[in-house]
């Protein structure tokens, strides 16, 4: 049984988990650039590469490759909670709140160092940015698998469509 099959088996035994419980699960696996190398995708339709290794109703495990100077869209994960492990590089986790008009506003930023864990609580709206000069590779587990996720456009980008 390889490590992905072992992780899928462990996830299938859970009906729900907190982000911290997902961290404990992640700590049981050797996640390194070498381990994840075959699953690191280059960006295509998105500004980052995304490889889903496990996807069931209960959970999803994903490898994200965020090139230097790039950022994800501002998004949430619906009703899912998540735990992420930064395998390589540096990231900034930007948190947002939605105003009364439906636009996201930055409320804070947290730097994430290599080999660090970070969390996505239920209904968190955030954006990952790579401020470094090298790629960032992270491993994410969400529970349940994100289903009702949303992407949010900042007010400035909406104006670009109008003007």
UniProtKB/TrEMBL annotation:
Give the Gene Ontology MF terms in alphabetical order.
Answer: iron ion binding; oxidoreductase activity, acting on single donors with incorporation of molecular oxygen, incorporation of two atoms of oxygen
UniProt keyword annotations, A-Z: Iron, Metal-binding
Q: State where Fe cation binds.
A: 75, 77, 126
UniProt cross-references to InterPro entries, sorted A to Z: CDO_1, RmlC-like_jellyroll, RmlC_Cupin_sf
- Which Pfam family, any one of them, does this sequence belong to? CDO_I
Instruction: Tell me its family.
Output: Belongs to the cysteine dioxygenase family.
Q: In its UniProt entry, what is this protein called?
A: Cysteine dioxygenase
What species is this protein from? Paenibacillus mucilaginosus 3016
Q: What is the lineage of its organism?
A: Bacteria, Bacillati, Bacillota, Bacilli, Bacillales
């Amino acid at each position: 049984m390889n490590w992905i099959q072992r992780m899928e088996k462990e996830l299938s035994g859970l009906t729900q988990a907190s982000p911290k419980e997902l961290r404990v699960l992640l700590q049981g696996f050797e996640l390194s650039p070498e381990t994840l190398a075959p699953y690191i995708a280059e960006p295509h339709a998105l500004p980052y590469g995304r490889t889903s290794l496990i996807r069931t109703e209960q959970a999803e495990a994903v490898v994200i490759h965020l090139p230097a100077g790039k950022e994800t869209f501002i998004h949430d994960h619906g009703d899912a909670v998540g735990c992420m492990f930064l395998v390589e590089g540096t990231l900034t986790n930007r948190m947002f709140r939605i105003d009364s008009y439906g636009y996201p506003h930055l409320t804070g930023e947290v730097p994430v160092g290599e080999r660090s864990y970070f969390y996505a609580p239920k209904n968190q709206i955030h954006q990952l940015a790579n401020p470094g000069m090298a790629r960032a590779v992270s491993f994410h587990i969400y529970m349940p698998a994100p289903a009702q996720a949303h992407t949010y456009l900042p007010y400035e980008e909406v104006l670009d469509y109008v003007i």
